[in-house]
Amino acid sequence: MSCRPRKIGDCAKFFGASLVVILNTSSAFADGSVTEAGASSGIAAPGAAIPGAALPQPLAGADGPRPDGGIAFHGWMLYPALFAGGVFNDNVYATPTNRTAAFGLRLTPNFEADLDNGLYKTTVYGTADAQLYPGHNPSLGETASTVSARAGLAQIWSPTSDIVTRFNVDYTRQDSPFGSTLITGAPIGSATSFIGAPVALNVYGFRQFTDQTTGNLSVQKNVTDQIFVRIGIGAQQLIYESPPTGFVSAQNSVDYNAFIRGGFWVTPQVAAFVETGGDLRRYNSSSFYDTNNYRVIGGLASDMIGLFRGEVYGGMQEQLSARGVFSPLIAPAYGARLTYYPTRYLNIAASVDNNFGSAGAATSLSPVSANTQTLQARLQADYAMFQSWKASARGGFADTRYYGSSASNQAWLGGFGVSYSIWRNLGLTLDYQYTNSTSNGLGALSYSDNLVSAGVNYRY
């Protein structure tokens, strides 16, 4: 069916989803707003081409908030949730050698609040994933315990039937290209895959956390029943916490981006679009790394064709040195976000993005690494075996290449889990995950770990 907005509550839907269905937690993402600023380069990656329509849930198969399962409060619907249990990690310091295994406590609180009055919809969300390993805090300052978090606000406002305005602000803290699989439902920033464990810390390893703050604003105008135009602007701040010795502080950056997209309804179910955009990435400590990126893409999107929904796009992108220090880099830009519903009990979601990244691993000895390109791919399948049983499987891959340098980084993720509902709001969960990060160049090392979580999930 086509989805041309009349009321914001009809088409411009928000959704909450977690990458892991078994935990039944939900991270709220606005329709298209998370992806509009681009997952890695800041350039406007494709949002929803369909006017006001919701993108497929980002690798989501998890149950989203249900109106009958929330708390009503002065027009708002509140959806609190909590996972609490134990965790085992066979490499808590993320080291290539001298691995340390430990048992700990895992807590994942989650909160979402929705307000929808017909003209606009507002979603406020916050979630965290704390893995606590008491007694494992070496004197070098490294800690086995980790805390990932995400919080933000998203809003869609439709003052008239032919205009849709989207706004969102989001803060994310994570330590890998995949973030926490308990709370992150979409690629956040490929720059976070750039730094591996440095040689100097091969005893205790090094988990590189990043803080990423993003804000986006876009306005879409439906010119006719078949033609629409969307323009948008955004900004993104990327901060690396405690970078290892030899890595310059110029990694921290601010990215300013803008885009314009025009689209046409080829059929009532399919929209074709063309988009051009650019971004200016500026580094805090040295303008030597500053880059200007440009992109032109085209693609197709659908709210639903048969059992599929989503979008695919392709085009070209160029990265230039703002100071003329690096040679220009031209590369393909492509991606897709697809969800497949073969049965009412099974859904499969996949995404892939190929974009330029930031100089995350730039060092004083290798400034050429400001030219980077990152490919990220994810796959998620969720299956409700019975009314009380659910199962999920997931996989991910991220590859970062540094042009003009031999340095590169690859990361793999795989996992599966099951959940059994004891009561309507309470479930037992068991989850396993394997992560592998392979780095070379710039003094980086590789590591892998196995993570097992078991506990109780409560959702109001």
Question: Can you walk me through this structure?
Answer:
This protein is globular. By secondary structure, the protein is mainly β. The chain has one helix and 23 strands. It has a single domain (15-459), classed as Porin (Beta Barrel), CATH 2.40.160. Strand 12 (253-265) and strand 13 (270-283) form a beta hairpin. 1% of the residues lie in helices and 57% in strands. Residues 1-65, 183-204 and 361-369 have low confidence and may be disordered. The longest helix is centred in the N-terminal third of the chain and has 4 residues, at 33-36.
* Largest beta-sheet details: 18 strands, antiparallel, barrel
CATH class: Mainly Beta
The separation of the N and C termini measures 33 Å
Question: Any idea of the CATH topology?
Answer: Porin
Report the uncertain regions: 1-65, 183-204, 361-369
- Got a strand count? 23
H/E topology pattern: EEHEEEEEEEEEEEEEEEEEEEEE
- Write down the domain tally: 1
Oligomer: single chain
